[in-house]
Amino acid sequence: MTLIFAHRGSKGTHPENTLAAFQEAAAVGSDGIELDVHLSKDGQLVVIHDELVDRTTNGQGYIKDKTVAEIKALDAGGWFSSEFQGETIPTFDEVLSLLDRMLFNGYLNIEIKTDKLDYPGIEQLVSERMTRREWSFIYFYSSFNFATLKKMQALEPVTPKAMIMSTSQKKVSLARSTDWIDALHPSIDWVKEAKGQFSKKLRPWTVNSKEDMMYCFEHQLAGIHTDFPEKAIALRQQLSS
Ligand code: G3P
Ligand code: MG
C-alpha cells in the first residue's frame, strides 16, 4: 500500500508547518507526516520550511538571526486565513509533544533543512531530542544534503534515512550506491519520467493532483508527500473498494 505523508502537515487546508496543520494531518488519518527543521539564533530547533520567516509569517528575516522568543512572537497563520490567526512557528519539541499526545502512530519524516544554510550542530541536536525517549510514532530522517544524512547515519545507524532531490542524476547515483539510504524522495515529475524504475523506496513530492495520486497508487510506490492527505486517503480507499 502506498503510504500517504502529509507535506508540512495538511498544507493545502491549514497553514504549513503549524500545530494546526499537524493536528489536522493526524486527525484525518495520514500514514505519515513530514516537517522541516531549522535552528534559531539561540540554538533551538524550530519547524518552518523557509530559511526566512517572510513568506509564512507577519515578520521578516532569517530564522538563524532570531531567538526562539522572537520567533514565537510572530503570527504564522494569518497569511493563510484569518481563521488561523494566532498560530505560531512551533518548536520541534512542541510538534513532537503534540503528535505523541495525540497518540499518532504513523511515520514522522523529519527533514533537516541544511541545503541552503549551514546550521552547525543541528544534526546532533535533532538526534538528542529524538533518542531521549520513546515516541508513539516511528520516525526517520530526510534531507537534500548528503553530508547531513551522513552525520545522522553516524549518530543513529538504525534510523532510516531518505535522500531528497528534484531531478539531480548525481543524487540518484549517490543514493543508489549508499546502502544505508533506504529511500529516495524525488519530485513527482522525475518519478514519472523515470517510470518509477528505482531499486529503493520512492516517496515523491508534491503529489496533489488526482492524476499524480493515481499514478503513484497504480505503480505501488512506497509513499507520497501531499498537501491534501484527506483527499489522497479517500482516493486510495475508492481505488481499493
Ligand atoms: O520531503 C519532501 C519535501 O518536503 C521536499 O521538499 O521543499 O517541501 O521541503 P520541500
Ligand atoms: Mg520538506
TrEMBL record:
InterPro entries: GP_PDE_dom, PLC-like_Pdiesterase_TIM-brl. GO terms for biological process: lipid metabolic process. Residues 2-236 form the GP-PDE domain. SUPFAM superfamilies: PLC-like phosphodiesterases (SSF51695). Pfam families: GDPD (PF03009). GO terms for molecular function: phosphoric diester hydrolase activity. Gene3D superfamilies: Phosphatidylinositol (PI) phosphodiesterase (3.20.20.190). PANTHER family: GLYCEROPHOSPHODIESTER PHOSPHODIESTERASE, CYTOPLASMIC (PTHR46211:SF1), GLYCEROPHOSPHORYL DIESTER PHOSPHODIESTERASE (PTHR46211). This is Glycerophosphodiester phosphodiesterase. It comes from Vagococcus acidifermentans.
